[in-house]
Each structure stands twice: as structure tokens, then as C-alpha cells.
Amino acid sequence: MDGKKAPNVSGVDSPGRRTVYSICGMCAVRCPIQVEVEDGRVVWVQGNPNDKGMGTSLCAKGAAGIPFEYDDERPQYPLIRTGPRGSGQWRRATWDEALDYIADKLKEVIEKYGGKGVALSDRGGPFNDLTKTFIKSLGSPNYFNHDCTCGRNAHHAAKSLFGMGRKDWGMDIKNTKHLVLYGRNMIESLQVKEAKDFIEALGKGAKVTYIDVRATLTASKASRFWMIRPNTEYALNLAWINVVLAEKLYNAEFVSKWVEGLDELESFVKEYTPEWAEKVTGVSAEEIKAAIREIAADAPQVIFHLGWMTARHRQSFHTSRTAHILNALMGNFEVTGGLIAAKGPGDYGLKGVNKLEDRVTKPTDERVDQIGTKYKHWDSGPGLAHMLFANMLTGEPYQVGAYFAYRHDPLTSIPDPEAIQKGMDKLDLLVAIDVNYSETAWYADVILPETTYLERGSLVAQKKGGKPSLQVRDQCIAPRFDSRPAWWIFREILRRMGKSEALEFETIEDIWHYQLDGTGVSPAQLREKGVIGLAKDAIMRDREDGLGFKTASGKIEIISPVLSEAGLPSLAPFYEAPPKEPGQFNLVFGRVGWLAHGQSTNNPLLNELMPENALWINSKVAAELGIADGDTIKVSSDGAEAVGKVKVTEYIHPEAAFMVHGFGRTVPLQTRAYKKGMADQRLMKGKLTDYDPAGGGNNLTETVVTVTKA
Amino acid sequence: MSKYFLLQDSERCIGCLACEIHCKTNKDLPMGPSLCKNMSVGPVEVKDIPRVRFVFMPCFHCEEPWCMNVCPSGAIKRRAKDGIVFIEPSLCIGCKSCITACPWGACQWNPVTAKAVKCDYCMERVDQGLKPACVTKCLTQCLDFGSAENLPTGQRERFAAAVARDHFNPKV
Hints:
The structure holds two protein chains of two kinds.
Chain A: E1 17-23, E2 32-38, E3 41-47, H1 60-63, H2 65-69, E4 79-81, E5 90-92, H3 95-113, E6 118-122, H4 129-137, E7 143-145, H5 152-162, E8 169-171, E9 178-182, H6 192-203, E10 207-212, H7 217-221, E11 224-227, H8 233-246, H9 252-258, E12 259-260, H10 262-269, H11 274-281, H12 285-298, E13 302-304, H13 316-330, E14 339-341, H14 385-394, E15 402-406, H15 410-413, H16 417-424, E16 429-434, H17 439-442, E17 446-449, E18 461-463, E19 469-471, H18 486-497, H19 508-516, H20 523-529, E20 531-533, E21 556-557, H21 561-565, E22 584-590, H22 604-609, E23 614-618, H23 619-625, E24 632-637, E25 640-649, E26 656-660, H24 680-683, E27 704-709
Parallel strand pairs in A: 6-7, 6-15, 9-10, 9-13, 10-11, 12-21, 15-16, 16-17, 22-26, 23-25
Antiparallel strand pairs in A: 1-2, 2-3, 4-5, 4-17, 8-14, 18-19, 19-20, 22-27, 24-25, 24-27
Chain B: E1 4-8, H1 18-26, E2 37-46, E3 49-57, H2 66-70, E4 76-78, E5 85-87, H3 97-101, E6 108-110, E7 115-117, H4 123-126, H5 133-137, E8 143-147, H6 155-164
Antiparallel strand pairs in B: 1-8, 2-3, 4-5, 6-7
């Protein structure tokens, strides 16, 4: 081990002023940034202006990276648990000690359950070549990321129609004429470039139809806003398709060339009239018709949002799918202002970065979530993490003995943490690698503190898009505490297991050299700009005969053979949820522009902007329940309870209750966030095993809560 | 008035509050003081859409600043060349007179240094030909900074058009 600090990139400690290009790590968006360092201290962070879409802009979370860096309320050295799980009793350990401890336990687990007895989950994104390589090196197929609580439904919906995933189609928001958003709160659940494009489009006169259960700031910017009944967007889409087909508002030429299954679609949607949808959604039939006529007139410069955080219920998959179908009917593909295929280096005849993963043999065991074996209609990539925890509890199809949470906090992000903890209790080893005390870290056996994004270099990130690019996170400053970069941590564990071949690099620069070999871009060039575009001009695929759908027919398949084989309908009847009692609501959650969930709530400056959350309920309903704005209320569901403040407003649907996610933290060392506000995931009793059979995502917004005055 | 303007195009503003945090990090401020406020107003229903407006409030850099007038130690100064009102930290005695005097809450208390702080348009940046932190990093470029002579082209026209637009005349 080389001294007190992790292996530094040369020059990190040098005096004077330096400019370093990096990638933000304050949320999962990972914007390119420019960092100014003076005498080893970060003094300024802004967007990386070498990326035109970014400019110098940076959001509040990104700006709060500096107070995060200089805050002491984060893991500072390896910790090994001494009391029962979750007791908060720890002892400080050296890196050697902590890593040896992990390796010894891992050896026992692999002895007992085989390599597949190890699982890892992370936050996904452009750097996961590292984590995949780690888990594969141990002989395990069990790589997971956070996507089961994010885009999985939308991803599988896209796959079932196009044979391509959610991210294979980008959205040209900047140039669109009409954007339809289903709860996609573009300016609060914030991505810098996307929000800039959104505002740019509005400035150019784009129209926005925004559908949500509450008036967000995105609704405030929209040209049409429908406060829809919770979990009914699918009904709206069915009615829209009904009108599009009945009134022949679709692009007949595009459809005849690229869409299969129109007849089946037509007969299926016959009964789903706007008049029917009015009763289900609460949006008037006339408005439903008027809107789709207006939208169709702007096609193909139209985007029905491909779905990111579409409200997750048992039919979110079909909500996403029908949004895709509307795009297909209007021919919004590979066109300015519509959907544009995301291209990689290969599309430009270039060689992409070399993967570390390719240095390891692929494990052949069945995944613990049985994707690819029992569940063939799902993508095995990052799996479904909720199944990992549910299966830990049952030991089916086999027992997992060790689990690594890398920068992922399932006890915050996946519903019903109590149930997850019961699964975790069966583990022989639970390791958290993080820059924060996550709820999961607090329940772990060992916490390994990772260096912050400003203190570490990461793998070269390759981004697909209209024009592909390479981006780098360079190390800005030396670590403040006894922490280590992820690549080093994973290599050290593998070395102790005698399985480090794929990660045998001495510095992050060595990894960059390996990744970039043959791409024509050198680490030095990448360092100089932070972002390097690989193509000068964007190429568009041929709408006549080259859209490149990856289905068996090469077309958009409305009836999906993959779904049929799984015994699932491609066109599913609308599911009407049973009525709720007075005082009951569907619990929905979301964000504000300055918080990235539990990761931000203890940040000194972000916490100040919002020290705790409140439960939004509708003013009329509140009056009936005798609840006034600012009252303390009790929210309960199936034995779980939260107490907090209420926000009474007319801008939420009477059947919905909303709170900002990430509050109600239980880690005492996060003194600012500790026990402040309410945690929605703790109210989602039973939702760990309640998921969409077609999309795989949990039915989070089907959680019914009862609200009473405390 | 200072010769500079700090303008906000409320139409482009998304209320992300990055401006407040950019300001605080540039001035290395702890929890507590906030040198500018981006306040949301509304919602007001305009053509069935609940619109929220944003009002950005930094220091106004008054012609005859009350804060400067009440300061007993001469720590608050107004630059002759451009009218920027600023606090000279070495002279501030922490008496809080300015905080009491300013009707806009522009002067704030820094509990770490036990001195008053206020917006000075990031004058060390302005002197280098740069814009204040809040403006440079504003997410949607809804903030802009300049003097009367060098207001960005089209800025005034855009404001005039926005004001004339129907939803600036809510039917309430």
C-alpha cells in the first residue's frame, strides 16, 4: 500500500492553479464539468464548455459538490461492524484488514455456494464495465443495477417493439414541435442538458402536453396540463390510439413500411373510446380528441416521451409501450425534432473503447433472478434487483451468500426495506462501497469509503448519441480521508482472491491506455478537453429502408413474439384498480431540482434549501378530513407509519398523495438529515414482490396510504 | 444605481435554485447566509395552467445604500467606477447594523466569520471581465449581467415580447 493516500494521478498535489476536466458525481446524470483547483483545493466547478450542450451551466446539486467534498459527515476510513446488523457499532480498520476480512468471507461463500453466490448492484451508468468485470471475475452472473426502480419498464417496452432498448433512441427535444410527457418532470428531476434543450424548445414555440397527478414546475411551463387520476395514463394512450386510427391521423406511408400488427391494434382499441377514457382518467373526451388532433398535425416533429419515471404500476410497461406505438403511428423516427437513433462509434466506422469485461470469461450459471432462463422476455443486462432481495429471503432458485452495494442504496430506493433487510439477514457478507453513509451501508458488515468523484479518476465513458463521444473523469484533488478509488478497491479484493487478471493495472491512466488503444484518441487528448466528439457531422439513418429495428421482422412489432412466448399479451386490457376508502390515497413520490434523493438530503447547502419533506394532499379532501396546511399528519400503510408535515394544495389529484423522496434517514452520523421528514419506501409494504409481469418494475405507485391528523 | 444590471428572464427560469448555491460556493459560505434569493410566486392559473413565476433578488446596489450609511466602521463601500456596493471584511466589526438596515435582506450574517456578507456581483470576477457566479452557471441562461451599453442583443426585445404575451396578463 503506497502511503496514506490512494494512488494519485500525477500532479494532483501540486501548488498553484490547475484546470481539471471531470464528470459530476452528485447524481446519476453525470454531467461533464470543469473544475478549478487552487493549491490542492477545489475552488470552482462549472459545466464543461467543451461540451456544447452543457456550456458552463451546472445545477444546484453539482454546485453543492464543493460543500460535499469539504463536509466531514461521510465515511472516512474502512469500518468493520462489531454489533448486530444495523446497530451502528463499528470499529475502524486499516484497508489491509478490511480487504482481508472481505476476502476471507468471500472465499467461504464461494466454497459454500459457488461463484454465483456473490451478487453486486450499482447505479448503472457509463462506468459499470468495472463492476461487471469484478463480479464476472468472481465467477458470478449476478450483476444488478438500480434500473428496476428507474427505467426497466420503459426499456422492456422499447425492446418488445423495436428489439432495441430505451436508450437506443434519443429524443431531439430541442427541435421538437410537440412534446408529450407522462409524469416526466423535466425541470425538477433534472438533467442539465435536457432541461436546457427543453427551455430552448419552448423559446422556439414548442408545445408541451404534460400529464401528471400533480402540478410540478414542468406543468407550469407546459401548454397543456392534465391532472390525471393516478395510474391511468395507459387508458389515455389507448383512447388516443383509438382516435388516431379512427380518424386516420397516422402516417400511412411510414406505418405500411415499418409497422406490423396494425389490424390487431385497431380491433383491440375499438372499445377504448375517449368517452370511456374520460370516466377512467378524469380528462374530458373532447379534450382528449382535440389534443391528439393538434399533436398529430405537428408529426413527425413530435415526441411521446419514451418514459423514464413513468408512474410505476402494473401497467407502466403498457403505458410506455403505447407511447412508443403513438410515436410509431406518427412516424416520429430518425427525424429532426423526433426520435433519433443513438449511434456508437461503430456507426461511424470507428473503433469503440476496449472493455475490461472482455478480459473475463462469461459465467454460465443461471442468474439468481432467473432472467434469461425462466424469464426470457427480460433483458439480463442489469437484471431486476428487487428479485435479488426477494430471492435472498427464499433461497430460490439458490442462496446468495455475499452482496456488494456499490454506490447503490437499495434500502432507500427499493420498496419495503424491512423485507429487504430480512433477505440481507441471510447473507454471510454484506459490503457497502460508497462516498455516503447510505441506509444500506449502515446495515452492512463492512463499509469501504470510496474517494469522492473529485478525488478519483474513473474509467473512460463512451456515450452514444446523435454523435458519439468519449468523456473522462480525471482526478482533481488528493483524497481528504483514508479512502480509495473504486478500481483500486475491486482490484485489491480480486488480488486476494487470486482472480485479478482482468483488473491488473497500476494506475487509472493504465486503464485509460488499455481502453483507448486503437480508438485514435489518447488519454492526454481526452484530459485536455474532458469531452471528445468522435464525429463531425451527425448521420441519419434512411427512413426508406434503413431504420435498423432489431426485431425478427426488422419492423416495429405491435404483437411481440417475445411476449407471446412468455404467455403475456402484447395488447393488455386496461386494469382498473379497486376503489379506495375516503382518506386513502395512492402514494407517489418525486424530486425537486436541487436534490438527488437520499444522496443529497444531508448535504450542508442542499439540506438548507429543504430540511424536510411534506405530504401533498388535495385541499378539498383535506377539508373533508379536517386537515389544514402545515398540520402534522400520520401516513400509514399496512402497519408501516410515517409522521410529518402536510402541504394542502389544490394542485394535486384528490386520489394522490405526494412526497419528495430521500427523507426519513436513519443514519445518526448524518446529523442534518437524521429522522427528518418521511421515507416513502418504508410505506410501500409488500411492494418488494409486487411487480409488473411484463416490464419487471415494482408497482410502487399502487401503494395505498391512509392519512390522518396526528 | 450601479452601472450594472443583473437581469432575470422569468420565462426561462426553472426555479432550480442553482444560482443560490453557486453564489454560496463561490463565496465559501456555510449554512445560514444566502446572498441572493430566487423566490417562486404562484401558482397563478393562466389559461388553465398553474404558472409559477420566479423573482431573483440579489442586492440592488443602491445609489445611497442604507447599509453603507449605518455602518459604523466604514466597512461597506460603494465603488466609484461602477457603483458596486461591497463589504471590506477586514473592517467589519460584526455589529449587524447593516443587516437591520437593509429593507431587502441583502446583508446577511456569516456565523463562521462572525461578520456580515452581501452580494458584490462577484466583483473580483467582474474585474476580470467575467460574469458573477450565479450568471455564469445559470442552468437555462435566464440570468444575465451587463451594463446598459452591453446588454446582450435581443434581451430587451425578448423581455418586451414576454411581457406582452397573454399569460403575463392572467385572468384572475
